[in-house]
## 1
Amino acid sequence: MTPVVQADALSGGFADPPVQAARAFRAILSAMARPGTICDVAGAAPPAPLSVGAGVAILVLADGTTPVHLAPSHDTAAVRDWITFHTGAPLVGAGQAVFALGTWPALAPVDRFAIGTAEYPDRSATLIVEMPALSAQGARLTGPGIRETAQLSLPEVAAFAANRALFPLGFDVILTAGDRLAGLPRSTVVEAA
Amino acid sequence: MTSEVYNFAYLDELTKRMIRRAILKGVAVPGYQVPFASREMPMPYGWGTGGVQVTAACLMPEDVLKVIDQGADDTTNAVSIRKFFVRTAGVATTEATDQASVIQTRHRIPETPLTEDQILVFQVPIPEPLRFLEPRETETRRMHALEDYGLMHVKLYEDIARHGEIATSYAYPVRVEGRYVMDPSPIPRFDNPKMSDCPAIQLFGAGREQRIYALPPWTQVVSLDFEDHPFTASKADHACDLCAAEDSYLDEVITDDRGGRMFVCSDTDYCRSRREAGHLGRLGAPYEEAAP
């Protein structure tokens, strides 16, 4: 028997994709280019537990060419159906993922994800990490995109410091909470405040 | 007015997603050239197809777009690209650097300092700084992977041995955050210092060569040099003949066949705003508003 796709999966996408995706991309670009900056996004209404921010990131960036990994926290039938219907992205294991989605504890251990190769460091995963909240406090950030220092409420420090040590390899991170998101590219140096 | 027959900003959404992913990876690894599936655009290679694709992937309806070609807002390339986006994206345009939110440029960085709210998109012909030293992509890719940039220093050394100084006057190679050697696109080396610690996001698109790279704001960009032959940002040793600016990059214009010449700002917006403010150069006439 063919599994039935719930009607909910068909709604919750962009109403006007070219324009809403353009605005959302600029927010994501701004967040990734200025680590520590928290941006508002809008336009997606994904099923719980997927946040608006993570839903927007998926709609803007994922498609049939980008395998997505769902961590156990987000691996529900509703989320699977929604992503499959709206993006066509294949759902895969952690090792093959271009995007990985979940809470920080559910994504662990993060050394499963692609970090690129010395000749193609761009062939690395982007983790979309669902957070309970985001604020400009906590770990101290320095590096490209940051004038002096910035602060961001990261789930931990050690894993991001280890990721930075791999530069120019490493994964990149989009942190989401509700309709807000922040970026943490691999180039950012993360220290405990 | 937007033409209804095109998707917003010309490109289809699948293409924009692919370009947007490449831009984000470029931002995450400053100076590294990200391969992307460059599309055929309705203009020839060499006219900014890479820059146009990056701009198309970034534009929002609220943007105010400025396009310059060698600093000028009124040359064929700049006018054509501006019209292209007015027609396909319906965005507002401007010639004033401080009014623009997205600036696409061919071979200059505006004289007016950029701000945090701006994106500067460069059109790049040959993105690989090592290409004329090593034609094989497999080799240059390995050289970047191994940070093997000795060949570039040999080239600069040979410049000094032959000319007494580093004679590279445009597309002067830079090192980004102490890691990747990057081609700044064929901007004059006068513009190189503006790339470092710039508040704006700088994106580079090479259409024919299918590469995108990026500099996030406040990124350290160092022009390659030697301790005993430090980098200098050179320009013609004159003031602008129209606006008397001594700090702007100048174009030399031949005015007759008896050796007559004048020097004018390459940045037309900068020159105009200075003349509006009453600055007058050697050959300048007092500024008058153009007739509507």
## 2
Amino acid sequence: MQKRLIMPEQLPQDRIKNFSEVALGYTEDQAVAEAKRCLQCKKAPCMPGCPVDIDIPGFIKLIAERKFSESLDVLKEKNNLPAICGRVCPQETQCEIKCTLKKKGEPVAIGRLERFVADWGRKNKKQRAKGRGQRAEGRPQAAVIGAGPAGLTCAGDLAKTGWKVTIFESLHAPGGVLRYGIPEFRMPRDVLDYEIEYVKNLGVEIKTNIIVGRTVTIKELFSEGYKAVFIGTGAGFPYFLGIPGENYNGVYSANEFLTRANLMKAYKFPEYDTPIKVGEKVAVVGAGNVAMDSARVARRLGAKKVCIIYRRSRSEMPARAEEIHHAEEEGIELDLLTLPIEIIGNDKGWVKQVKCLKMKLGEPDDTGRRRPLPIDGSEYLTDIDTIVIAIGQGPNPLLLSMTPGLKLTKKGNIVADDITGETSLEGVYAGGDIVTGAATVIEAMGVGKRVARAINETSPLIPLQRGN
Amino acid sequence: MYKILDVKQLSKEIKSMKVSAPEIARKAKPGQFIVLRIDETGERIPLTINDFDPKTGSITIIFQEVGKTTGKLGMLKKGDSLIDVAGPLGHPGRVEKIGTVVCIGGGVGAAVIYPEARALKETGNEVLSIIGARSRDMIILEDKMRKISDELFITTDDGSYGRKGVVTDPLKEILTKRKIDLVIAIGPIIMMKFVCLMTKQFNVPTVVNLNPIMVDGTGMCGSCRVTVGNEVKFACVDGPEFDGHLVDFDELTNRNARFLEEEKESCTCKKDS
Ligand SMILES: Cc1cc2nc3c(=O)[nH]c(=O)nc-3n(C[C@H](O)[C@H](O)[C@H](O)COP(=O)(O)OP(=O)(O)OC[C@H]3O[C@@H](n4cnc5c(N)ncnc54)[C@H](O)[C@@H]3O)c2cc1C
Ligand SMILES: Cc1cc2nc3c(=O)[nH]c(=O)nc-3n(C[C@H](O)[C@H](O)[C@H](O)COP(=O)(O)OP(=O)(O)OC[C@H]3O[C@@H](n4cnc5c(N)ncnc54)[C@H](O)[C@@H]3O)c2cc1C
Ligand code: SF4
Ligand code: SF4
Ligand code: FES
């Protein structure tokens, strides 16, 4: 069987000196060749793996026929943001894992093909949104809170079906984690801007600098005439370890570290005004995508040694395999089965060392993963000058605390229906990380779509046009 | 874009600026702040809302030119615009009938305390105010503060105006002479620290307004974390006001020096350009 085509990448020794995209994308010929590997299975087992129901054999067939523009049309039917998904979807555990070819060897590179078509469209200026949902008077108004993937998708789909949609975003730029969290070398900003432009072209208005709960409340949105409100505020509240020394200078939350680097472009300091500081030796605590991104940013900012500290073993690392691979190629070390227990500072209040314990794996815990247990007397000290804490994020309570009657889980996430996104408040829907806790871009988009559909179905106002 | 409606020079390094921001003006309360960005390459910095007018949709900020961003802000004129203004952020100050309140503003802190002092007065409290600065040309808002205070004390480090000394001098006299229900102190960290050490001796509850380095101002980054009563708090959402007797001021001083070298570098660039 023909091998899956490798996507060209920047070499590790080059890319650690820049913030340009690591993966370079297929050429037209490569894409066509890869597309021809698809068996066009009748039942398409890959499709149920995609949370937004893309017609996978459909769009791939058109690539094989070099009908790129038509292929993009197929993608856009279900996915308003294909250039993003093609890059950051965990394809290996979503659509590709279910591909028939996977059983025999390597699955079709569905994500890379999706990315190819979306990039082709951007380069060839195809696929401007058709004016289906232009903002016209008399349309029902919907408010979307948060311009992350959940909010953008829900807004786009509502606009397509005739709603007049406004997104309220607290930061100065839309995109959510795609803007402030995921670095440019994985998610180039021109790609992101282009995808957001598409949503705007559908008729969606994006108002930045509006912190819902502070600048305006949900109650006020309803009294201003909005008929439905979707909350897609993400999981933006950073967790710390709660160990001594975490407030020393040189200790960042991943959110602060990545926001400075990405949203504020501190890697271009002093051209950009926001500073960021990394030392020679950086430790990143955690092993998810956020940790990998932080480590790789630290590397690009000039750190000589970067290590990931994780209390479990390699097979429990939650990051995408590709990200771990990329990180290792860039010289990032993995300190596995290691638990930081104290951060030690110097006399000027800066981080000097981290004290760790070695761990071993015991019985599985309730998540099914083997529980890490400390090994007695295994304490040791490592010299370090910067620490990034990337052990997860929770729901930001700001909006929630200002919205009486909104039912929350014990962890502070919004209680919402899996399918429709309905919350305990009438007309208020929620989805994405604010409901599920930190998850994935495509899951956030999937729920954004489902909620848009549910809003259409339950709304007493019949929108002028119904789409998918 | 947020249009600058007016700029006034209040003292040598301190300016006030009126900005059009109707959504914020409508919701602002004393004690809250905004986060602004001047232009595309700019940093997000927090500034207290000194005044607001829902009718005209404007807010007023007062800032001291201490570095790159405030320096750039100081060069803007009426008619120019700011690219981003977000708010109102933080918990509003405690405005209720308390009794006799001492309001202390050090340096530009006078701008921060003014809206709260005024609101406290309007709520029926007796307001004694102290404003302190390095020298005469750094004293701001004297007239406004006098208008809303039952008594106003002024101190300067060099004695060029008011009485020579620091704000804790008149504070000590007040605390010795009479019963005070609350002290609010806003200014340099070192001033807040010494005010708190003193009020602690007299057992008078004290509120301070902290100014850690912020990025988003919405509880997302943890840059603004401070230790209050052995607990980690995010000043932007849990504050910015806290019980001064519980604040770890030394840690805050240390954390605010995190980017000292970069701030210097930034400022040299400003002079070059
Ligand atoms: C560093 C990092 C790397 C990741 N890598 C991957 C990856 O490779 N693949 C993948 O699939 N997933 C990845 N994820 C997870 C993924 O990004 C999230 O699951 C996804 O972004 C969730 O989307 P969302 O729309 O629910 O929330 P978010 O993307 O968090 O967006 C929420 C938006 O709401 C705004 N907001 C919050 N509160 C308010 C308010 N009160 N008023 C107005 N606006 C508000 C926020 O500013 C933000 O813009 C990563 C996450 C991080 C942090
Ligand atoms: C809630 C709050 C309200 C404030 N209100 C006022 C006010 O009404 N008037 C006023 O003049 N100042 C106020 N400040 C302080 C003001 O934010 C800083 O002076 C300003 O950020 C300095 O930026 P710069 O680039 O000019 O100076 P820089 O050279 O960058 O720094 C000078 C000083 O400002 C501090 N600083 C730097 N960046 C930030 C940042 N992003 N956030 C907070 N502090 C920072 C540094 O610790 C340093 O001590 C307030 C701060 C906070 C947190
Ligand atoms: S959106 Fe994600 S899950 Fe769906 S087909 Fe594309 S890569 Fe696969
Ligand atoms: S399962 Fe694989 S081979 Fe079959 S249609 Fe889907 S992508 Fe093509
Ligand atoms: S400034 Fe980011 S959490 Fe307070």
